[in-house]
Write a structure and sequence with these properties.
Elements: H1 2-8, H2 13-45, H3 50-70, H4 74-105, E1 110-111, E2 114-117, E3 120-123, E4 126-128, H5 130-149, H6 156-160, H7 163-175, H8 179-196, H9 200-219, H10 235-244, H11 258-270, H12 295-328, H13 332-357, H14 374-392, H15 395-403, H16 408-413, H17 464-468
Antiparallel strand pairs: 1-2, 2-3, 3-4
Helix pairs in contact: 2-3, 2-12, 2-14, 3-14, 4-5, 5-7, 5-8, 5-13, 5-14, 7-8, 8-9, 8-13, 11-12, 12-13, 13-14
Length: 469
């Protein structure tokens, strides 16, 4: 423990912990994507590494985004908050309009080069998921708004304008088609408000409003929201019913709990140490979305409880590091953005893992760093790059980097030196002998004031010759 405390007390401990945990999760993710998709890709196209190649390309793009984000100062992030949020809202509106157009016309949700498919927006050959960009945008914009308001957050009207209307709009635009991503946004907002020091009664009111909103989003699935179909059973309500009142596993193999049953079989088949990397069987068309939403079940089958414990530990280290950065930085914006990004990443991992093992209802969110998906991986690595920039800006880390700066080419290639923390001067208490206001600064009374333009006498008497002597 003494050695561990010594390592954690080093100035750049947060930066190194962040790089280690995120890098290991990325490597494990690439390995498990290859394991979950190699057999299917070989059977369909004769190339077992097709999905791995695609995910590796997005990983390279994400590393470039990480490198760019860790070089940016906090002022740049504050300036990028509003335009990034505007782009995310615009993409979400276009996605929802295209989906509604396709359902109204009973045809393809396509207009020109734009095409929508539930959660994905296609621009020609390029596909992206606007909800992932909305998470990062809400971190930047929400942290900027809360940091600007400062101590006035105790008043409801300060939270009501403009934070709550924008958050409500994002919840509607995201949650109409993707309830799981909306829950990730909710965790992000909770992290922001908690770091801002909002009162508990505000959290109680928000919890009530949030539960009502989730209930409405569950109800609109009967009208065609998400993957629901008008006139058919509400699949969101069915998932909640299966979670709170699960039927016997043998009775629901072909119903809505089919994925849950196959995930349980995979976990049971893995045992403590797993069947071996690449030796799992449920990924062979038995478990739907094995490379995406249910990749944790593949990890449990092939790597066992030990592999799952490693994944959970790495996410715990990532969460600890993010909160450590939020506690150590002295800039309010950095503190809020670090807390919001940490709540987003750890909350999304908790929702995914909880749904796979049966602790939470199924929502269909990917596991950060590990699940197959380009947009989520790039945005996640960009958020980690922002945290890395904040970790280098910790007061102790900044002083250490300036005391022993790296070589010039390292600063040009990797990251520049962070700004030194400002020295705060303490206000000097007034002396009791001089009174609360210095005597020289007191305003003279009318009888003591001298006319402007006249020169006060120095009080030296005698003639000029006497003064010269």
């Amino acid at each position: 423990m003494a050695a561990l405390r010594g390592l954690l007390s080093r100035p750049l401990a947060s930066y190194h912990l962040l790089l280690a945990s995120a890098g290991l999760l990325l490597l494990i993710g690439l390995t498990m994507v290859f394991s979950a998709t190699s057999v299917r890709d070989y059977a369909q196209g004769g190339n077992a590494s097709a999905s791995l190649t695609k995910q590796a390309i997005f990983a390279v793009i994400g590393i470039v985004a990480f490198w760019a984000c860790q070089r940016l100062p906090a002022s740049t992030y504050r300036a990028l908050g509003r335009p990034t949020l505007a782009v995310a809202v615009g993409l979400l509106i276009v996605l929802n309009l295209l989906v509604a157009y396709g359902r109204l016309t009973d045809g393809d949700a396509k207009i020109g080069p734009l095409e929508a498919e539930l959660l994905w927006l296609y621009v020609g050959e390029i596909s992206l998921q606007p909800s992932e960009l909305a998470k990062f945008a809400l971190v930047l914009w929400g942290a900027h708004v809360l940091a600007r308001k400062g101590a006035t957050l105790g008043w409801w009207r300060e939270l009501a304008t403009p934070l709550f209307p924008v958050v409500g709009l994002l919840f509607v635009l995201v949650g109409y088609n993707d309830l799981g991503s909306m829950l990730c946004l909710l965790a992000l907002v909770v992290g922001l408000l908690w770091a801002a020091g909002v009162r508990l009664r505000v959290f109680a009111a928000l919890s009530t409003i949030g539960l009502l909103g989730i209930g409405l989003l569950v109800a609109v699935a009967s009208l065609g929201a998400g993957s629901g179909v008008r006139g058919e059973d509400n699949y969101r309500l069915a998932r909640l019913t299966v979670f709170f009142n699960p039927p016997p596993l043998d009775a629901c193999k072909e119903q809505l709990c089919y994925q849950m049953v196959q995930a349980r079989y995979a976990i049971a088949n893995g045992g403590w140490f797993g069947t071996g990397l690449g030796q799992g069987r449920t990924k062979w068309a038995w478990l739907p979305a094995a490379e995406n939403d249910f990749i944790f079940a593949v990890i449990a089958e092939e790597l066992g409880v030990v592999g799952c414990a490693v994944i959970v530990t790495l996410f715990a280290v990532l969460g600890y590091t993010g909160l450590r950065i939020a506690r150590r930085v002295d800039d309010p914006f950095r503190r809020l953005a670090a807390a919001g990004a940490t709540a987003w990443l750890v909350g999304q991992a908790f929702i995914n893992i909880g749904g796979v093992i049966g602790l939470l209802p199924l929502t269909g969110v990917p596991l950060p760093f590990i699940s197959d998906g380009g947009s989520a991986l790039v945005v996640t690595l960009a958020a980690v790059g922002m945290l890395a920039s904040f970790a280098r800006a910790e007061p102790d880390a900044a002083r250490a980097l300036h005391a022993r700066p790296p070589a010039r080419w390292v600063r040009l290639v990797w990251a520049p030196l962070p700004p030194l923390p400002g020295r705060r001067r303490r206000a000097a208490s007034p002396s009791t002998a001089r009174g609360p206001v210095p005597q020289a600064r007191k305003r003279r009374t009318d009888d003591q004031a001298t006319p402007r333009g006249t020169r006060a006498t120095r009080g030296r008497g005698g003639t000029a010759s006497e003064r010269r002597r």
